C-alpha cells in the first residue's frame, strides 16, 4: 500500500465529500453471526467530532471527484478548477477495513462524482460494497449514494449490500433546480428513490414468509436539501421534506446550510455566513413532525412562510395557540404533553411514569429536567403558585427571551437586522 | 433506642446485597454502607461492622427485587453500582427499601429522590459506557493484537465487553483499564479478565516501534488526514466540538494527539 499516495487522495476526496451531512449509522439490523468483522445491529456511534462540531461515524469519501455535471452549488462541478483524484475499488475496501478494525468508524459512506454516466458510476460504488460484504465478511454499516438516473437493476443490487441508500435532492424546488443545476432533471432523482422504496416494501413482505430473503437496505433511505442557496422559504423546504417522508418512507431528511464554494451570481456571495441558526430551526421542525405528532401545516402555512428565528418552533406554535394552555401536567394526555414548550420526549416519558405515583409539583418537574423558563408559562401542577397570568403572546415571548440564553443569541442579533 | 449501624463490605455488588440482607434480617438502622478503604467518619454511637459476602444471601435479595421491580430498574441499580461514587450505596439501599416496601413496581417513580438519584447515576455510567465504545482506539501490536488502554471515569469494562466481542469477532483484542489495573481480552473464542504488567512507554496513543506493528503509524497518519479534511472551516464551532468531545477524552484519540 502506497500510504503517501493514499493520503493525498484521502485529503482530496474526503474534503469533497464533507458537504454531505448525513452521518447516521443506526437503524440497520446486520448482526455479526458468522464470526466476521463488524456488527451494525445496535445504535449508531459517533467515534469523533470535527472542529465544526459535526460527528464522525463513517468514513465519508467520494470514489472520485471527476464529474460530468456542472451544478452551481457543488464544489466538484465540472467547471471548478480543483485537484481531481480517484480511488481504486481495493483502496477504499482496505481503508474501510483498517479504520474499522481500529474502532475509528462505524462503516463506509461512499459517494461519487459522476464519470462517464450514471450506471457506470453506480456500478463502481456497488463493487466496493460487494467486495466488503462478500470477500471481507464485513458487517459494518455501508451507506451508498444512489446516483441520479441509475438503472433499476443496479439499484436493486445496491440495496443487497448497502444498509442505507440516499439520493440528495439538494434543491427543494423545481425552479431552483432548473436555475442551479440545468443538466439535471427532477425525474432522475425520483426514479432511484421510487425503486428503492418499492424494493424495501417488497423485502418486508417477502421476509415475513421466507426468513432467508436477502436483506434489502435495512436502514432505509435518506435525502438532503441545501438551505439558503436558491432563495426558498422554510415552508418550501419543510413541505418537500414532508412529501419525501410520506411518499418515499424516508428515514431521514437532512438540511445542509449552504457553504459558499463558488463565485456565481445565482448564489450567495463567497463570504456570506452559513445559515446555521436557520438550519437548526429546520431540524427542530423536522423533529416535531417525526416525534411530537405535529402536522407541518400547523407550523408553516400561508401566514407563516418562515420559522421564527428567535424562538424554537414549538414555542412559536404555542404562542400562536394560547387558547390551548395552560394544561395541567398531572392530567393532560400524552399528545398535548408533547406540545408543551420546554418539555422534550425524555421528560414526557419521565412525567408519564412519575405521575402514576403522585401529583407532581414544581420541584419534581425541575428535578426531572424540563426547561422551566419556557414550560412554566404553559402549565399548572400540584401547587398554588401559578406562572400563567395571561399576558399577551408578544409580551410573553419577550419575557422568555429575557430569561433564557441561546447559543445563537449573537446570530439572532445580526440575522434579524436583515429584516 | 434503635442502634445505628455502619456496614462495610468487600466492594462487590454481591457484598453490597449482603449488607442489604443483613440490614433487613436484623432490622438495623443503617446510616452508612461503604467498601474497604473508604473514609468512614467515626460517628458517636455507631458500630462499624464488616459484612461477610455470602452468594446465597445476595441471590435472595436479587430474587425478591426481580419480583417487584422492572428490568430497567434492576439495570439502573447494577449500573449505578459500577459508578463507584462514594455514598451511592445509601441511595441504592434507600431505593431497594422503597421497592421492597411497595406492592406495585416503583423503580420508575422518578419523584422519589433515591430512585431519581440512582437513575441519574446509571445514566452517567451509561454515557461513559457509550463513550468508551466510541473513543477506544485500537493499535495493532507486533504480535497482531489490537490493543487499547483506557482510564474511564466509571468501571465500565464489564458493560462494554459484549459490544466489542460481537463487533471484533475475527481479531484478537485487549482493552485495558489503567486506572483499575485490569483488562478484557478476546482470544477469538472467549473474553477473559486479565491483569498485565504494562510498560508505561506503551502509552494511550502513539505507536512506539518497540511494541507496535510497522503499519500502525501509517494508518494513524491516514486517519489524522481524514479527520482534518472532513472538517468544514467556515462552520467552525469549538464550543460544540468540546461539548461532544470533552477534553478529558482527548488522550485516547489518535486524531487529537497526532504530532504533525
Structure, briefly:
The complex is a heterodimer of chains A (419) and B (260). Chain A is α/β, with parallel strands linked by helices and 419 residues long. Chain A has 16 helices and ten strands.
List the SSEs and their pairings:
The complex is a heterodimer of chains A (419) and B (260).
Chain A: H1 3-17, E1 48-49, E2 55-56, E3 58-62, H2 89-101, E4 107-111, H3 118-134, E5 141-145, H4 152-161, E6 164-166, H5 174-180, H6 186-209, E7 221-227, H7 234-248, E8 252-257, H8 276-291, H9 296-299, H10 313-320, E9 327-328, H11 334-337, H12 345-354, H13 362-368, H14 372-375, E10 379-380, H15 393-402, H16 409-416
Parallel strand pairs in A: 3-4, 4-5, 5-6, 6-7, 7-8, 9-10
Antiparallel strand pairs in A: 1-2
Chain B: E1 4-8, H1 13-25, E2 29-34, E3 46-50, H2 55-68, H3 71-82, H4 88-101, H5 113-135, E4 139-140, E5 146-150, H6 157-167, E6 173-177, E7 182-186, E8 191-194, H7 216-229, H8 238-244, H9 254-257
Key features?
heterodimer, A: 419 residues, alpha/beta, TIM Barrel, 2 domains, 9% strand, disordered C terminus, B: 260 residues, 5-stranded mixed sheet
CATH architecture classification name of the largest domain in chain A: Alpha-Beta Barrel
Mean pLDDT of chain A: 90
Distance between the termini of chain A: 56 Å
Let me know the number of strands of chain B. 8
Number of strands of chain A: 10
Can you identify the CATH superfamily of the largest domain in chain A? Aldolase class I
CATH class of the largest domain in chain A: Alpha Beta
Oligomeric form: heterodimer
The low-pLDDT segments of chain A are 414-419
The N- and C-terminal alpha carbons of chain B lie at a distance of 70 Å
Radius of gyration of chain B: 22 Å
**Alpha-beta classification of chain A:** alpha/beta
How would you describe the shape of chain B?
elongated
- Global shape of chain A: globular
Largest sheet of chain B: 5 strands, mixed
**Which percent range describes the beta-strand content of chain B?**
5-15%
Order of helices and strands of chain A: HEEEHEHEHEHHEHEHHHEHHHHEHH
Largest sheet of chain A: 6 strands, parallel
- How do the strands of the widest beta sheet of chain A line up side by side? 3-4-5-6-7-8
Discrete helix count of chain B? 9
Q: Mean pLDDT score of chain B, rounded?
A: 91
Amino acid at each position: 500500500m502506497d500510504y503517501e499516495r493514499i493520503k493525498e487522495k484521502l485529503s482530496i476526496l474526503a474534503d469533497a465529500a464533507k458537504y454531505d451531512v448525513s452521518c447516521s449509522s443506526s437503524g440497520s439490523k446486520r448482526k455479526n453471526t458468522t464470526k466476521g468483522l463488524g456488527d451494525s445491529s445496535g445504535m449508531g456511534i459517533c467515534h469523533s467530532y470535527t472542529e465544526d462540531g459535526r460527528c464522525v461515524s463513517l468514513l465519508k469519501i467520494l470514489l472520485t471527484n471527476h464529474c460530468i455535471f456542472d451544478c452551481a452549488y457543488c464544489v466538484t462541478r465540472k467547471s471548478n478548477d480543483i485537484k481531481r483524484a480517484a480511488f481504486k475499488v481495493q483502496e477504499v475496501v482496505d481503508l474501510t477495513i483498517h479504520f474499522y478494525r481500529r474502532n475509528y468508524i462505524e462503516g463506509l459512506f461512499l459517494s461519487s462524482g459522476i464519470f462517464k454516466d450514471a450506471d457506470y458510476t453506480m456500478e463502481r460504488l456497488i463493487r466496493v460494497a460487494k467486495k466488503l460484504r462478500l470477500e471481507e465478511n464485513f458487517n459494518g454499516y455501508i451507506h451508498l449514494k444512489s446516483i441520479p438516473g441509475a438503472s433499476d437493476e443496479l439499484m436493486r443490487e445496491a440495496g443487497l449490500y448497502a444498509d442505507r441508500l440516499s439520493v440528495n435532492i439538494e434543491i427543494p424546488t423545481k425552479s431552483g433546480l432548473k436555475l442551479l443545476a440545468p443538466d439535471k432533471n427532477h425525474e432522475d432523482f425520483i426514479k432511484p428513490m421510487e425503486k428503492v422504496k418499492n424494493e424495501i416494501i417488497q423485502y418486508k413482505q417477502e421476509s415475513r414468509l421466507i426468513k432467508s430473503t436477502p436483506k434489502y437496505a435495512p436502514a432505509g433511505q435518506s435525502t438532503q436539501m441545501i438551505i439558503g442557496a436558491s432563495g426558498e422559504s422554510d415552508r418550501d423546504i419543510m413541505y418537500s421534506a414532508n412529501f419525501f417522508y410520506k411518499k418515499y418512507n424516508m428515514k431521514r431528511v437532512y438540511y445542509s446550510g449552504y457553504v459558499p464554494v463558488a463565485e456565481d451570481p445565482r448564489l450567495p456571495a463567497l463570504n456570506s455566513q452559513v445559515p446555521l441558526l436557520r438550519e437548526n430551526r429546520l431540524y427542530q421542525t423536522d423533529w416535531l413532525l417525526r416525534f411530537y405528532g405535529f402536522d407541518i401545516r400547523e407550523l408553516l402555512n400561508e401566514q407563516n412562510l418562515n420559522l421564527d428565528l428567535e424562538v424554537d418552533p414549538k414555542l412559536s406554535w404555542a404562542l400562536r395557540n394560547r387558547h390551548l394552555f395552560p394544561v395541567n401536567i398531572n392530567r393532560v394526555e400524552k399528545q398535548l404533553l408533547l406540545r408543551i414548550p420546554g418539555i422534550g420526549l425524555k421528560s414526557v416519558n419521565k412525567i408519564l411514569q412519575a405521575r402514576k405515583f403522585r401529583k407532581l409539583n414544581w420541584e419534581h418537574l425541575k428535578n426531572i429536567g424540563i426547561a422551566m423558563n419556557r414550560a412554566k408559562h404553559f402549565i399548572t401542577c400540584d401547587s398554588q403558585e401559578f406562572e400563567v397570568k395571561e399576558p399577551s403572546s408578544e409580551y410573553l415571548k419577550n419575557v422568555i427571551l429575557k430569561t433564557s440564553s441561546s447559543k445563537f443569541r449573537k446570530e439572532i442579533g445580526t440575522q434579524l437586522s436583515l429584516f | 433506642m434503635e442502634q445505628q449501624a455502619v456496614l462495610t463490605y468487600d466492594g462487590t455488588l454481591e457484598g453490597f446485597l449482603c449488607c442489604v440482607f443483613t440490614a433487613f434480617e436484623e432490622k438495623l438502622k443503617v446510616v452508612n454502607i461503604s467498601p474497604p478503604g473508604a473514609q468512614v467518619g467515626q460517628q458517636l454511637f455507631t458500630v462499624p461492622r464488616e459484612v461477610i459476602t455470602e452468594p446465597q444471601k445476595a441471590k435472595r435479595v436479587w430474587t425478591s427485587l426481580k419480583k417487584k421491580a422492572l428490568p430497567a430498574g434492576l439495570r439502573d441499580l447494577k449500573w449505578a453500582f459500577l459508578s463507584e461514587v462514594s455514598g451511592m450505596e445509601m441511595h441504592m439501599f434507600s431505593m431497594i427499601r422503597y421497592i421492597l416496601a411497595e406492592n406495585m413496581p416503583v423503580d420508575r417513580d422518578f419523584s422519589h429522590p433515591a430512585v431519581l438519584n440512582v437513575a441519574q447515576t446509571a445514566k452517567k455510567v451509561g454515557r461513559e459506557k457509550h463513550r468508551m465504545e466510541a473513543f477506544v482506539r485500537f493499535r495493532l501490536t507486533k504480535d497482531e493484537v489490537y490493543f487499547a488502554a483506557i482510564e474511564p471515569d466509571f468501571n465500565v469494562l464489564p458493560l462494554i465487553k459484549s459490544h466489542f466481542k460481537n463487533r471484533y469477532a475475527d481479531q484478537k483484542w485487549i482493552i485495558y483499564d489503567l486506572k483499575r489495573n485490569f483488562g478484557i481480552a478476546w482470544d477469538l473464542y472467549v473474553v477473559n479478565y486479565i491483569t498485565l504488567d504494562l510498560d508505561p512507554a506503551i502509552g494511550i496513543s502513539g505507536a512506539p516501534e518497540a511494541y507496535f506493528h510497522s503499519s500502525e503509524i501509517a494508518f494513524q497518519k491516514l486517519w489524522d488526514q481524514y479527520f482534518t479534511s472532513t472538517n468544514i472551516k467556515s462552520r467552525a464551532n469549538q464550543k460544540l466540538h468540546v461539548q461532544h468531545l470533552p477534553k478529558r477524552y482527548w488522550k485516547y484519540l489518535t486524531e487529537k494527539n497526532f504530532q504533525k
